Amino acid sequence: MNNTVRIAASIGRLILGSDTAPVSLTQASLLLLRVVLGTVMVHNGLDKLADISGFAEAYVEAIGLPFPIFFAYCAALTEVVASPLLIIGLITRPAALGLFMTMLVANYHHILIGGFSIPSIELSSIYAASFAFFAVYGGGKYSIDTLLAGALTKWLLAPSDNDAIAQSARVRISSK
């Protein structure tokens, strides 16, 4: 096979293949997605907190949930707390799960109020799908979760001082 055919095959695999991107590029893309999603959602949560009674009346009461102020605060605080956690990749799965649940309620609201109109449900559906992905996948390679998991694994698998003393004693006994 000549070089031209090899280059054409490589370009074809790069364009058409779904798993041919370098791992670091894929993980950097996931980091970018986490940062963008979290930044936008924290803004939404701050908007809700700025007018909690208006949000409760327009969104929570409209779908018939009891205790509208309480649930309005739940939605707003979930967005304000979980979004920065998603951005930095700390306890990513629970944070994304909370945001996913909030977006499911938003989808329900949009469907109940506007029907199955794509313009009214598309954004909350995209958010919900994105948060569901991170709830399943986790924060990825470039997250604090990964750093903590690596440190925890290293700490749990590190030999303790007692193990080192016992190993030293075994070596002395077996060498006699």
TrEMBL record:
Membrane topology per record: Multi-pass membrane protein
Membrane spanning stretches: 21-43, 63-88, 95-118, 124-144
Family according to the record: Belongs to the DoxX family.
Places the protein is found: Cell membrane
Keyword entries, A-Z: Cell membrane, Membrane, Transmembrane, Transmembrane helix
Chief localization: membrane
Record-given protein name: DoxX family protein
